[in-house]
């Protein structure tokens, strides 16, 4: 988006688009790996945490999540590294070996499974860095250009429980942006139904309430958090 703003004078004139230039971004590596046999995983998706010094990752068992792979004879997984700056120079094979090692540590069933095929894709500066102070520079869905609407997990002001860096929020804001287009065109289109997330578990709800209370106390005392 920053490249579009830099290259387009019409966007560069708008303060909300220029504010996007203040956002930082992170490198991403996406992998897809095929194994020679089916391996049952405890969860269809999970986090690979603590393996890389500066990068975090998630992995997905595509046999459980996508119809395309449901009947594959072997297991197919995808794994994505975020803040993968230091991993980009590695060869495809080195990255695949890392993924296999990390996943096998979390899911021992992969130990001994052989890789039959793999894909490694690199995306420099591909996702927003949700760092302290970045919120003020993130765009709203409705922009200063009447027929331009934003979608993605980086937009703010969307009243939905899917918050932060997530594919769920990207999906929800895509539906929401489409609904805004339908409303603007006013041609009788059928808006998409957007389901909210399930209510927080009691301990999560209590923690959120405590944080809100602390923020209110800080605001009353004239203190402003650097994380807002």
UniProtKB/TrEMBL annotation:
GO terms for molecular function: oxidoreductase activity. Transmembrane segments: none annotated. PANTHER family: AMINE OXIDASE, PROTOPORPHYRINOGEN OXIDASE. This is Amine oxidase domain-containing protein. Residues 9-182 form the Amine oxidase domain. The lineage of its organism: Eukaryota, Viridiplantae, Chlorophyta, core chlorophytes, Chlorophyceae.
């Amino acid at each position: 988006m920053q490249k579009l703003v830099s290259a387009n004078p019409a966007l560069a004139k708008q303060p909300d688009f220029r504010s996007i230039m203040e956002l930082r971004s992170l490198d991403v590596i996406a992998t897809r790996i095929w194994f020679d046999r089916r391996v049952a995983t405890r969860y269809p998706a999970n986090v690979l945490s603590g393996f890389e010094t500066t990068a975090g990752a998630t992995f997905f068992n595509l046999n459980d999540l996508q119809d395309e792979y449901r009947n594959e004879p072997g297991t197919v997984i995808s794994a994505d590294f975020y803040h993968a700056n230091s991993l980009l120079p590695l060869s495809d094979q080195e990255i695949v070996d890392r993924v296999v090692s990390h996943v096998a540590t979390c899911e021992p069933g992969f130990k001994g499974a052989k890789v039959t095929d793999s894909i490694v894709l690199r995306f420099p500066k591909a996702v927003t860095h949700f760092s302290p102070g970045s919120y003020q520079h993130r765009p709203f869905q409705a922009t200063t250009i009447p027929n331009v609407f934003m979608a993605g997990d980086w937009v703010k002001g969307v009243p939905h429980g899917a918050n932060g860096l997530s594919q769920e929020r990207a999906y929800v804001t895509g539906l929401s942006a489409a609904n805004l287009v339908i409303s603007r065109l006013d041609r009788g289109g059928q808006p998409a139904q957007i389901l909210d997330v399930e209510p927080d578990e009691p301990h999560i709800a209590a923690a959120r309430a405590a944080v809100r209370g602390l923020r209110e106390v800080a605001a009353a005392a004239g203190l402003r958090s650097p994380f807002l």
